[in-house]
Design a protein that fits this description.
By secondary structure, the chain is an alpha/beta fold. The chain is built from twelve helices and 19 strands. The longest helix is centred in the C-terminal third of the chain and has 26 residues. The protein is globular, with a radius of gyration of 22 Å. The chain binds S-adenosyl-L-homocysteine (SAH), iron/sulfur cluster (SF4) and FE3-S4 cluster.
Length: 444
Amino acid sequence: MEKYYIKTFGCQMNVYDSHRVAGILNNLGMCEASSIRQADLIIFNTCHIREKATEKLFSDLGRVLQVKQERAAEGLDTVIGVIGCVVQAEDDQIAKRAEYVDFALGPLTYHRLPEVLAKVARRRGQTIIDTEFPAESKFDFLPENTASGGCAFLAIQEGCNNFCTYCVVPYTRGIETSRPVFEVLEEARKLVGEGVLEINLLGQNVNSYHGEDEQGKERNLAYLLRRLNEIDGLERIRYTTSYPADVNDDLIACHRDLPKLMPYLHLPVQSGSDAILKAMNRRHNAAQYLEIIARLKEANPALGFSSDFIVGFPGETDKDFEATLELVDKVRFIQAFSFKYSRRPGTPAAEMPHQVEEKVKKERLDILQDKLFAWQLKFNRESVGKTMPVLFEGKGRHPGQLTGRTPYMQNLYAEADRGLLNKIIRVKIKDATMNALSGEIAER
Ligand code: SAH
Ligand code: SF4
Ligand code: F3S
């Protein structure tokens, strides 16, 4: 039986896509290889968001060529494919810099993989590239999503119309599209039937969801959350990533009304400076962001927030940066992702004057992360002594240990029987670091 190996870079949407690609390959009678060296088909699912991510791909591809050559010496053939956001943005570069790549598919065409693999078999030595924004929805052509544990991602929306001036996503994933309500509910019910307890709804701008319901009426994310909340056996619902200006009253009410909706929300703010937010083309200023947070907290006082930040956006002054630090202290994020601005060719910000020096970017990132990490550690420490429901997802680093997640997405380690895997169990928190909690099973 032929074996495949998929390496995934980038965001959760890519993790979901790789899982769906594995489903296609399983359907073709292939199975997963235990290591890259064993694989007859190697696929890289790529990310284009920051310069480093793209460069990493080309260095990894160099190493894959070596694997291919070693296998060839043993008389084994290896097909190499690249899929995902780098393909959409740099298809010509891939064919030029890595001519040994057999095929390259954009994020919206990977459902065509079976045809492409058949073509590869006929036309070796030529890179087959497909970066169309197709008229059909890939979801109509994929085999059913299957569960691989207690947690599952479910893509409900793809693409983005926001065109933040620093970001490649609208160019790599295209304009916003939403999957119909029935399709999402069907996929969710199937996953729950296979033992999934937690579903994380995915989209580049997930709260702009506008899928059609069974009567052809356009529905929003809040409607979808309410329908999902009714599914028996589904215990936890999350959604990511949201755009602040698209958080509406309906969605806020869900955080008050829906017991299955987890008390954790990732709501990227990027900067605390109004001037920078404007230059970023974000449709919110700092005060509006804080207002949304306040209203969400009013709906559910237990809510914890996480966010994304960019430091060193073109024109960012010390004063702008101070405003970001102030916003962090106001919201007290329980988790966060922060990045140095990365100049992406083809985006408006790449051409803006007053690009910030690398040294300054680094200094600002260090200062910001010190602050963010301190709040995260504080939140984790405050969890000590509490008892929380934990969904155990995998084996821990040490024998006899399992790892799981609390409602707040905190990683947790506990001595636990393997029988507790993919179950939600109450755990008493004993200790905390910035990255993880440890605890003891509080129920038999
Ligand atoms: N759709 C989501 C996430 C997009 S990418 C959103 O809008 O929030 C994830 C994060 O990467 C962004 O939130 C942003 O903080 C960061 N990012 C995007 N482009 C970047 C760039 N050019 N340089 C540095 N960070 C970037
Ligand atoms: Fe990129 Fe902005 Fe869209 Fe997020 S909202 S994907 S940062 S353009
Ligand atoms: Fe990267 Fe594409 Fe996701 S650029 S962050 S993999 S949408």
